[in-house]
Amino acid sequence: MKTYLYPAKETWDSISKRPYIDNRDLDVTVKEIIARVRSEGDKALHEYSEQFDGAIIKELKVSDAEINESVKAVSDKLKKAIKTAGENIEKFHRSQISEEAVIETMPGIKCWRKNVPVEKVGLYIPGGSAPLFSTVLMLAVPAKIAGCREVIICTPPDKNGKIDPLIVYSAMMTGVTAIYKIGGAQAVTAMAYGTETIPKVYKIFGPGNQYVTKAKEIVQADGIAIDMPAGPSEVLAIADKNADPEFIAADLLAQAEHGTDSQVVFLTDDKKMLIGVNRTVDEQLQRLPRKNIASAALENSFSLLLSSVMECIEFSNVYAPEHLIINTSDASALAENVINAGSVFIGKYSCESAGDYASGTNHTLPTNGFARSFSGVSVDSFIKKVTFQELSHKGIERLGPTIEIMAEAENLYGHKNAVSVRLKR
Amino acid sequence: MKTYLYPAKETWDSISKRPYIDNRDLDVTVKEIIARVRSEGDKALHEYSEQFDGAIIKELKVSDAEINESVKAVSDKLKKAIKTAGENIEKFHRSQISEEAVIETMPGIKCWRKNVPVEKVGLYIPGGSAPLFSTVLMLAVPAKIAGCREVIICTPPDKNGKIDPLIVYSAMMTGVTAIYKIGGAQAVTAMAYGTETIPKVYKIFGPGNQYVTKAKEIVQADGIAIDMPAGPSEVLAIADKNADPEFIAADLLAQAEHGTDSQVVFLTDDKKMLIGVNRTVDEQLQRLPRKNIASAALENSFSLLLSSVMECIEFSNVYAPEHLIINTSDASALAENVINAGSVFIGKYSCESAGDYASGTNHTLPTNGFARSFSGVSVDSFIKKVTFQELSHKGIERLGPTIEIMAEAENLYGHKNAVSVRLKR
User: Fold this and answer.
1) CATH code where residue A347 lies
2) What pTM was computed for the model?
3) Do A92 and B105 count as a contact with CB atoms less than 8 A apart?
4) A148, A166, B222, B297: which has the fewest Cβ within 10 Å?
5) Rounded to whole angstroms, how far apart are CA atoms B212 and A263?
6) A145 is in which domain, residue-wise?
7) B385 domain residue, yes or no
8) Which runs of consecutive H residues, i.e. helices, occur in B174-324?
9) Could you tell me if A320 and A367 are in contact, meaning their C-beta atoms sit under 8 angstroms apart?
10) How far apart are CA A256 and CA A272, in angstroms?
11) Which residues are CB-contacts of A245 (< 8 A; sequence separation ≥ 6)?
12) Residues A125, A197 within the same domain
């Protein structure tokens, strides 16, 4: 971890810049995959699975027999944990739905919005070394609460053509309607445009490797909705002299173990704490199974000594972290000043892992500074708000002349006439 | 307008396909503009204004003197109309904000979301023959309600380097913080990355020509938030035998006059109405100042005879129109069945023009079938929902083991350890 002591504010922007990842060369590869899946459908999917995942897949769709097998394979301990986490996630996300009132903006003019679920959504769940079943919960629970009719998952198979039982089990617990064994850019394309087996969806969610990310970016430019732009995961932790360096170090390493491209930022107004946390990170690192990954992530990371915890918050607002941990004695008051962050963890017992898994908040959050303009995934992400209006005769009589004047000023006489024909009646 | 009589449901998808617009050749041009504005800043903006708008601009920013001049130039009649429309838009959009409760998902675990305005937003307002001051109201009013700190407008100057007084006046009435005389892809680039004069913003809104649209698409792929993907404007109107063909025809033409690429769709279960509306469209068309534009738009348009008004709604849900007019005797009941639409106009007096200008709803809406997954612009578009959580000692004690079990199952021992160090204390 690089260390900066009292850096001038003018340098904050450049310190906040995330490491540059050049993935322009992916463009050609991913566009080729997209074109082939669009033209050849399932055939291309089978061939890519063999090529990229080393798996020969008979049926893309996970069968009922495979589902039953998976349900049996999950331990009771894990089932109970998934139930607890699922209930918390459901409770918090259910609170996000609100019906809005009908507003009479003028006598005879009623306007309102109605929550309507996106009919078909697709969730991408990465495969690989760790089965991210927590992401199934984080995406499928809000989709179910929203009322989406079709919620499908695409996830890459292992070499034996199998999906991890935890992913299948979590999907079944949360009302997912179908699971398909397909990963990568080819899975994103299948969900965006449909194939013989995989239905086209209207919005695509979920994390993934650089191919998945690039494919989401490309189909988005074609008008297919996606959850949010992606970037490496990151945490920014703020501590004062009262914090426990063990806690902070553990939080930083929990982030660093995600991937070699993760970024970890530590801010404090106390020089002893800076030294203590850096030392404790080194100690804890030695005991971490994913030590190599975490070490590489720490190379991209930095700690900052600033003059006050309030200045730490100011820096954090410039950086706009995905996760913000505030571990200071006045954490709640400080949190009031947060402007740009995905999810904020207040106080010494609020570790990021809680929000990653089970406290109830969503873990699909804006990275890479996107928290300046994006929210994390919520029930809102699975809903459209359709506006309605109803004008009475009195309403159009009253508002009509205003519309006519404005339409005329915009040289849109057809717009004006739509009012005039009604006023004449 | 093409006419289909009782088309089979299997054909609805293909009937609903919007006319294909090939703008791939724009890619090179727009990428060149983006690259040049990013490297040369204001200098490039001045040169593009001269090249594309034929305008030599001294100061990009509209001056206080120009603002005062514009305020004087707007007639009292228009000022009053803008005031009325602005008040309705404000009233409806203010109702969209709701504070959410703090949820205790488990004893000792509190989760909540907070509305935080996007700090800096940029609004693109097209220039050209018609000054779209109504779009200023539709974007700046919700931005102000959201509490955005910086709300800038970019709009192209005329040949004399001037901005239409109505745009300047509307911007001043709605709290816009600065107006810049710049249009096209160069304006989008300036807002996305900043120049010496134009500040970088975090989200870009507003309609525009194909260069603007392409530039928004390209900067979006670079992580800059935009309001929504763009496409030609469109309306779908449904009428039963009780509707007034004059009203329907006027509504269709109000849409058709927008641009030659606009699409107009008319659905009915009554053959006489189909014939009547088509005839009335032809009659009204002759009197329309923008007849040529509307005629061209009607070439891309169609009417459909279906077996019932309920089937009309079903077709509309497949088409997913930007604007949906339901002009039937049971309009309110039918509207309950709407799934995919941007904004719905219920009953014979609810013409689209009302929503375009003054009833209170927003007119920035998803076109091109995007209503399947996107909402129109609202206060939500200018806000992020930041999540917060606070766990007490009791909270982590209770939930900790669940998190540990799940983290271990995902092979993320650093995540587990962040809990374990706290449970040990």
Assistant:
1) 3.40.50.1980
2) 0.97
3) yes
4) B222
5) 34
6) 26-102+118-226
7) no
8) 184-193, 210-221, 245-256, 271-286, 291-299, 309-319
9) no
10) 22
11) A239, A273, A276, A277, A279, A280
12) yes
Q: Across the interface, which of B119, B258, B344 has its CB nearest the CB of A372? A: B119
Distance from CA of B58 to the nearest CA of A (A): 27
* Domain closes at, from B165, B198, B226: B226
In this complex, do B385 and A375 lie within 8 Å of one another by their Cβ atoms? yes
Pick from A133, A125, A127, A123: nearest CA to A75: A133
Look at residues A210, A226, A242 and tell me which one is the last residue of a structural domain: A226
Domain identity same for B371 and B413 = no
Percent above pLDDT 70 for chain B? 100
H-state helical runs in A131-270: 133-146, 165-173, 184-193, 210-221, 245-256
**Rounded Cα gap, residues A143 and B249, in angstroms:** 40
* CB nearest to B385's CB, from A258, A358, A378: A378
Strands A103-106 and A109-117: antiparallel
Q: Are residues A146 and A241 in the same domain?
A: no
Answer yes or no: is pLDDT of A424 > 90. yes
Q: Does residue A216 share a domain with residue A288?
A: no
Q: For residue A217, which residues of chain B lie inside 8 Å, CB to CB?
A: 221
- The verdict on residue A239 lying in a domain is yes
Per residue in B228-252, pLDDT (tens digit) is: 999 999 999 999 999 999 999 999 9
Same domain? For B77 and B134 the reply is yes
**The total number of structural domains that make up chain B:** 3
Could you tell me the two tokens for B22? 């090939």
Could you give the strand order of the β-sheet that contains B225-226, starting from the edge strand earlier in sequence?
Answer: B178-181, B150-155, B120-124, B203-205, B225-226
- β-partners of residue B235 are B264, B323
- CB-based contact B377:B205 (threshold 8 Å): yes
Tens digit of pLDDT for each residue in A29-75?
999 999 999 999 999 999 999 999 999 999 999 999 999 999 999 99
Q: Return the active site residues of A.
A: 322-323
Name the pLDDT band for B217 (thresholds 50, 70, 90).
very high
* pLDDT for residue B381: 98
- Sole residue written with tokens 């506006």: A387
Q: Could you tell me if residue B380 is inside a domain?
A: no
Do A54 and A196 share a domain, yes or no? yes
Do A211 and A344 have their domain in common? no
Q: Which residue of B has its CA nearest to A135?
A: B410
Interface probe with A: pick from B205, B351, B364, most Cβ of A within 10 Å:
B351
Residues A336 and A399 in one domain: no
Residue A209 counted as domain residue: yes
The helix/strand/coil state of A40 is helix
Q: What is the DSSP letter of A202?
A: S
Cβ contacts below 8 Å, chain A against chain B, sum to 404
Judged by phi (left if over 0) then psi (alpha if -120 to 50, else beta), residue B71 lies in: alpha
Q: Is the CB of residue A186 less than 8 Å from the CB of residue A40?
A: no
Q: Name the CA dihedral angle for A299, A300, A306, A308, rounded to a multiple of 10 degrees.
A: -110
Neighbours of B56 (CB within 10 A): 12
Expressed in angstroms, the distance from the first to the final Cα of chain B is 75
| Nearest C-alpha in B relative to A219 | B221
- CB-CB under 8 Å, A350 with B389: yes
Instruction: For residue A22, give both structure tokens.
Output: 């050049």
Which two tokens mark A159? Answer: 């070499």
3-class DSSP assignment, residue B24: coil
Give A349 to chain B, closest Cα distance, Å: 6
CA distance B237 to A400: 20
pLDDT for A99 beyond 90? no
Beta bridge partners of B203: B121, B225
